[in-house]
User: Which sequence fits this backbone?
C-alpha cells in the first residue's frame, strides 16, 4: 500500500481551551478544561493531516504554539514521511534531548503526518500499519469521584458497556481512600474491573501501606503510586505489592521504556502517544513490551490509540477520556464498552465553529 510521494508545504497550529464533559480532579492538580493545540499539516500535493496535543494546562499552549511555528521552518519542503521526519529530529536534537514540550511537539507532528498519509490513500491509519479496524476494550476514566454524588455517572458507564472503570485517589489519607474505593466498588458491582490512580502522590512506603489495605477491593491495577521518574521507588512498590503496578504515561520515547523495564518498575504499562513519539515512536517501542511480556494500555488520545492498539502485542485496555470531542465534528464513538478505529487517517475533522468559539 503506497501513495504518491507527499511534500510538506506548511505546518499550522491553533490553541483552544475546550470544555470537558467531566473536568478532572487529581491528587496532583485539577484539569478544569482541555488545553489543546490543534495541528494541521498541508502537503504540496493537496491532502492535509491533523492531530492534537494535550497541554495539561493552558500555560503550555503559547510555548507549544511557538515550537510548532519554528518546526515549520525545519520541515517545510521535506518529504511527509513520518519515520524520516522522526529520524531527522532525533539527530537534530541529540544534544538538547527530545523530552518535555519539544517531545510533545514532535509527537504531535508525527501523528499529523500519519493522518496525512492515511487521508492521501483514503484509508484509516490502522490499515497502513498492517492491521484492521477492530473493537478495542476501553475503560471509562474518571478523576476523583464522590461515590454518592457521582453514582448516576458511574452507573451510566456500566450501562454503556464499560467492563472497567478507573478513578483517581490520594487527595487525603488512607481512610478517605478506603471509603472512596469501597463506595465506587459498591456502585459498579463486583464484575466490573476497577483501577485506581495515585498520580505520583505518594512515597514508596506509604504507597505499599495503602495498596495493601486497598487490595481487598479486587483492583485491576494501581497507577503511578510514586513520582514517575522514581523507577527505584516503583520497583520497590511492585516487588511487595499485592496489586499489579501500572506506569508509563510519562515515558519519553523508547529509551524511557527501556530504563523502566530494566529497573523492574511495572507489571503493566501505558505509554502516551504524545510522549512516546507519536505513532512512529509507539511502533518502535512496542517490541520492548512484547519481549518483557508486559501488557500495554493507552494513555489519553482515544482517536489515535484505537489505531495503534490493534497492532500492539499484549494490548490490554484503551483509556476512554474524551479530550477533544468538543472541537470535533464526530467525537470518538463507543459501542458496548469498545472503541473502533475510524478513517480516513486518524478519523478526525475539526468543528471549525467550535474551534473559533474556544480559541485561546
Assistant:
Amino acid at each position: 500500500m503506497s501513495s504518491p510521494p507527499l511534500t510538506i508545504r506548511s505546518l499550522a497550529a491553533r490553541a483552544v481551551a475546550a470544555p470537558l464533559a467531566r473536568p478532572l480532579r487529581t491528587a496532583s492538580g485539577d484539569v478544569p478544561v482541555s488545553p489543546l493545540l490543534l495541528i494541521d499539516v498541508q502537503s504540496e500535493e493537496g491532502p492535509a493531516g491533523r492531530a492534537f496535543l494535550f497541554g495539561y494546562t493552558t500555560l503550555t499552549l503559547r510555548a507549544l504554539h511557538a515550537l510548532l511555528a519554528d518546526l515549520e521552518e525545519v520541515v517545510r519542503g521535506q518529504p511527509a514521511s513520518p519515520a524520516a521526519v522522526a529520524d531527522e529530529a532525533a539527530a537534530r536534537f541529540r544534544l538538547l534531548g527530545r523530552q518535555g514540550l519539544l517531545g510533545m511537539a514532535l509527537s504531535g507532528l508525527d501523528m499529523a503526518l500519519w493522518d496525512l498519509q492515511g487521508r492521501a490513500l483514503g484509508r484509516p491509519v490502522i490499515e497502513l500499519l498492517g492491521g484492521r479496524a477492530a473493537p478495542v476494550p476501553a475503560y471509562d476514566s474518571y478523576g476523583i469521584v464522590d461515590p454518592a454524588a457521582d453514582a448516576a455517572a458511574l452507573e451510566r458507564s456500566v450501562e454503556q458497556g464499560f467492563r472497567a472503570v478507573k478513578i483517581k485517589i490520594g487527595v487525603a489519607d488512607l481512610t478517605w481512600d478506603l471509603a472512596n474505593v469501597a463506595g465506587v466498588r459498591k456502585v459498579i458491582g463486583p464484575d466490573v474491573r476497577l483501577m485506581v490512580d495515585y498520580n505520583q502522590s505518594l512515597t514508596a512506603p506509604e504507597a505499599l501501606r495503602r495498596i495493601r489495605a486497598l487490595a481487598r477491593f479486587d483492583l485491576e491495577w494501581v497507577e503511578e503510586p510514586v513520582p514517575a521518574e522514581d523507577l527505584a521507588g516503583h520497583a520497590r512498590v511492585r516487588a511487595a505489592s499485592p496489586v499489579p503496578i501500572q506506569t508509563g504515561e510519562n515515558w519519553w520515547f523508547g529509551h524511557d521504556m527501556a530504563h523502566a523495564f530494566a529497573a523492574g518498575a511495572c507489571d503493566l504499562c501505558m505509554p502516551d502517544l504524545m510522549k512516546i513519539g507519536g505513532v512512529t515512536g509507539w511502533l518502535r517501542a512496542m517490541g520492548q513490551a512484547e519481549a518483557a511480556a508486559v501488557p500495554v494500555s493507552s494513555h489519553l488520545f482515544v482517536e489515535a490509540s484505537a489505531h495503534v492498539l490493534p497492532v500492539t502485542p499484549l494490548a490490554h485496555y484503551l483509556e476512554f477520556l474524551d479530550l477533544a470531542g468538543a472541537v470535533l465534528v464526530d467525537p470518538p464513538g463507543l459501542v458496548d464498552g469498545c472503541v473502533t478505529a475510524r478513517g480516513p487517517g486518524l478519523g478526525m475533522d475539526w468543528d471549525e465553529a467550535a474551534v473559533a468559539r474556544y480559541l485561546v
Remarks:
- The first strand starts at residue 8 and ends at 26.
